[in-house]
């Protein structure tokens, strides 16, 4: 898949655990895991905004395009 999700990278930079981010976002750890592994078919802008707010980052820090 040409879209790479870098939530793990941002979590490491912010020294935050997935469980903590899931609680902040109001989603289950399982749903966050689906997003982190790139298995999600899409992401709502509302969720992306919440991730960026929680991790103090930009959407480009979380999502990356890599040509195949």
UniProtKB/TrEMBL annotation:
Pfam families: HTH_26. It comes from the Bacteria. GO terms for molecular function: DNA binding. InterPro entries: Cro/C1-type_HTH (IPR001387), Lambda_DNA-bd_dom_sf (IPR010982). Residues 13-62 form the HTH cro/C1-type domain. Gene3D superfamilies: lambda repressor-like DNA-binding domains (1.10.260.40). This is Cro/Cl family transcriptional regulator.
């Amino acid at each position: 898949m040409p879209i790479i999700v870098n939530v793990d990278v941002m979590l490491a930079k912010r020294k935050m655990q997935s469980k903590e981010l899931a609680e902040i976002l109001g989603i289950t750890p399982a749903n966050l895991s689906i997003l982190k592994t790139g298995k999600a078919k899409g992401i709502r802008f509302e969720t992306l905004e919440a991730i960026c707010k929680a991790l103090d980052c930009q959407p480009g820090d979380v999502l990356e395009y890599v040509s195949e």
